[in-house]
Specification:
By secondary structure, the protein is mostly helical. The chain has a domain of 34 residues. Helix content is 47%, strand content 0%.
């Protein structure tokens, strides 16, 4: 693309005709003029004083009991039977 200046020229002309070039320029300027995110903006929540206060040090949450997935005995037998030669299965 960079080695073909006619292509770049055609793309710029097409961008000007369709208005795409100006929108790209507008959003680029808008992006560069955004303030830095270094300052903290505090959010004001509704009824924050009525929220429940949890104390996880005094009463820690219960550990989660996740389902443990294991292979059943039947599946193991099927796989070992398939690995054996056909002559031994007869």
């Amino acid at each position: 693309m960079l080695y073909n200046p006619r292509f770049v020229f055609r793309r710029i002309i097409r961008g000007i005709r369709t208005g795409e070039f100006f929108w790209d320029l507008y959003y680029a300027i808008k992006f560069y003029l955004l303030p830095a995110t270094g300052n903290n903006i505090k959010s004001v929540y509704y009824a924050q004083d009525r929220w429940i206060q949890y104390d996880f040090k005094k009463k820690p949450p219960k550990p989660a009991n996740y389902q443990i997935v294991r292979k059943s005995q039947l599946r193991k037998e099927d796989k070992t039977r398939l690995k054996k030669p056909i002559a031994t299965q007869l």
